[in-house]
Amino acid sequence: EDKVVQSPLSLVVHEGDTVTLNCSYEVTNFRSLLWYKQEKKAPTFLFMLTSSGIEKKSGRLSSILDKKELFSILNITATQTGDSAVYLCAGLGGGSTLGRLYFGRGTQLTVWP
Amino acid sequence: NAGVTQTPKFRVLKTGQSMTLLCAQDMNHEYMYWYRQDPGMGLRLIHYSVGEGTTAKGEVPDGYNVSRLKKQNFLLGLESAAPSQTSVYFCASSYYQYGYTFGSGTRLTVV
User: Which of A4, A98, A102 sits opposite B96 (nearest CB)?
Assistant: First the structure.
């Protein structure tokens, strides 16, 4: 059964802290791993990771994929209150399930001023 | 460029009533999806379509039906609504595995 597991499920930090969010996956015909940020409304795209060991960065956010160990991490440095959101990880299937995203339950990040 | 548009944005139904949620995309995407999101859960796939006239079941299809008569539209139907279908529904579309785009969601309450 395809599944994506995120940890921790919730995290409370203070502004300026660095956080690491974890995502492990078991997805048939795995193609890519996607990270989304969700604030009250629709998820917004952060990263798509296809190759192992190559870090993707966007400002204070970075992510990396390990296809051997089947996991990914999302790092946020110097957190700000605006980073408070649910962070979703999703595995993208291929083959007969091409295009299907398998989501984890998300990590609720709260950043206190 | 509107992207993915969902209607309605909010709806309250009584148990046993029926309704249809509409998803429209203007990006010429081949694939379209319906997800539901419940508190503390990620998004769970209800049904999806890989092209006009095709549909397939996802993880949680029971109680829902879908149709994709036109490439740009994907309809989600509830024939007899139940309180367990209270949720936030998201539509999404993609060009095969690329360009995944979500609609803004429909909050449905069944009383």
Answer: A98
B42-93: pLDDT as tens digits: 899 999 999 999 999 999 999 999 999 999 999 999 999 999 999 999 999 9
Give the single-character DSSP code of A51.
S
DSSP string, A61-104: EEEEEETTTTEEEEEE-S--GGG-EEEEEEEEP-GGGTT-EEE-
From A113's Cα to the closest Cα of chain B, the distance in A is 24
Residues 6+ apart with CB under 8 A from A57: none
Smallest Cβ–Cβ distance between B42 and the set A42, A88, A92 belongs to A88
Joined tokens for residue A36: 């989304």
* Closest alpha carbon within chain B to A44: B102
pLDDT digits (tens, 9 = 90+) for A22-34: 999 999 889 999 9
DSSP tag of B39: T
